[in-house]
């Protein structure tokens, strides 16, 4: 199990932040064996598909270079031209092969870990020049694992190569009894199949190396429990500071809510535990909006502000509880409460008009709250 420099065990998986930081520094899983295997597979498939073209170009090249006039041998300009023609003769097959290999090389390098660019690995570091640190890396467990992997890879490739040579040895000897064109075609076919068999050995190695590199990368980035806590504090902030921020936010929200109370048309109370302040815009005709709500001390403050601004304060425990528990500040009241709130507002407007000489309203209407909005205290 991985350990930190202070001896604490790294038991926790790397956080998304640490993974992203590592990626920004160029620390991502890579597999050289995967890149090599993919490159050789593409090369083998390309050679297999273009074998006929390659044989044709080789025959043309051999004919052209074995049939040289004696006079051309003593003419430097003619020999330079001869070399140029030889290069052109092989251009078709070689350009195709090299282009495909270039693309395969790029894809193979980013197949594991994806495309990533960082200047961090190129930044000079004094720690890399420390001979003691260098010796530690040379004799580390990671170096031992890499050495064993290299020995295993060389042994496997050597074994496969020997088996391939022994398998094609009779056919290789038989090439001497064939005409030149047939021998070349048959010889290239042997080379291609030998190449394919050796490449399959590298595919087997890559299939083991890729999961190992992914696992090794995750192990290196593992974190201790303390590192997880420290990172959380850095991202979220100190708990005391967060608590103070939340307190200030609640105070600011409370201040904003209280500043809206003077605009209310009516305040409905429990009368002691809950208070809600409603506003109705008669011009827009939309549903009444909850401007403020609160319980206990806040309910008392809402009533005090209402009394200060001469806003009607109506006691209706059932309606106060219904609005309090089913409506958020700034939202319209639920449709199921439209009727009972409309009755209350009509009564309030009658009270307001009575101040200007209009007749006083009769007793307050019976505010029946629908059963689905009744609150039983649970």
UniProtKB/TrEMBL annotation:
Q: Does the keyword Membrane apply?
A: yes
The reply to whether Transport figures as a keyword in the UniProt entry is yes
- Superkingdom of the source species: Bacteria
UniProt keywords (A-Z) are: Bacterial flagellum biogenesis, Bacterial flagellum protein export, Cell membrane, Cell projection, Cilium, Flagellum, Membrane, Protein transport, Transmembrane, Transmembrane helix, Transport
InterPro entries, per database record? FlhB, T3SS_substrate_exporter, T3SS_substrate_exporter_C
Q: Which NCBIfam families match?
A: flhB
Functional description taken from the UniProt entry: Required for formation of the rod structure in the basal body of the flagellar apparatus. Together with FliI and FliH, may constitute the export apparatus of flagellin.
Q: What is this protein called?
A: Flagellar biosynthetic protein FlhB
Organism of this sequence: Marinomonas posidonica (strain CECT 7376 / NCIMB 14433 / IVIA-Po-181)
């Amino acid at each position: 199990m991985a350990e930190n420099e202070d001896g604490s065990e790294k038991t926790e998986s790397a956080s998304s932040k640490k993974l992203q930081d590592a990626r920004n520094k160029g620390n991502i899983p890579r597999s050289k064996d995967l890149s090599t295997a993919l490159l050789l597979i593409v090369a083998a498939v390309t050679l297999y598909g273009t074998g006929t073209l390659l044989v044709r170009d080789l025959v043309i090249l051999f004919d052209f270079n074995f049939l040289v006039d004696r006079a051309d041998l003593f003419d430097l300009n003619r020999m330079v031209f001869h070399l140029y023609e030889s290069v052109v003769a092989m251009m078709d097959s070689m350009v195709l092969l090299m282009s495909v290999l270039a693309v395969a090389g790029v894809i193979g390098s980013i197949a594991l870990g994806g495309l990533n660019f960082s200047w961090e690995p190129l930044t000079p570091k004094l720690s890399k020049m420390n001979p003691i640190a260098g010796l530690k890396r040379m004799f580390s467990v990671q170096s031992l694992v890499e050495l064993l992997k290299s020995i295993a890879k060389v042994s496997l490739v050597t074994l496969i190569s020997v088996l391939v040579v022994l398998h094609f040895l009779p056919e290789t000897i038989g090439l001497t009894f064939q005409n030149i064109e047939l021998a070349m075609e048959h010889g290239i076919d042997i080379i291609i199949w030998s190449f394919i068999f050796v490449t399959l050995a590298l595919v087997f190695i890559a299939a083991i190396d890729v999961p190992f590199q992914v696992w090794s990368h995750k192990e290196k980035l593992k974190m201790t429990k303390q590192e997880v806590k420290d990172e959380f504090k850095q991202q979220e902030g100190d708990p005391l500071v967060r608590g103070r921020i939340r307190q200030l936010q609640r105070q600011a929200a409370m201040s904003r809510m209280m500043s809206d109370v003077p605009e209310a048309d009516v305040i409905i109370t429990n009368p002691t535990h809950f208070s809600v302040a409603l506003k109705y815009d008669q011009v827009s005709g939309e549903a009444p909006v909850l401007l403020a709500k609160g319980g206990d001390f806040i309910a008392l403050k809402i009533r005090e502000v209402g009394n200060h601004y001469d806003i009607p304060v109506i006691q209706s425990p059932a309606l106060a509880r219904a609005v309090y528990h089913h409506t958020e500040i700034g939202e319209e009241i639920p449709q199921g409460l439209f009727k009972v709130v409309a009755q209350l507002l009509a009564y309030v407007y009658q009270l307001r008009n009575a101040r200007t000489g209009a007749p006083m309203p009769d007793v307050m209407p019976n505010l029946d709250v629908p059963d689905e909005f009744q609150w039983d205290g649970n």
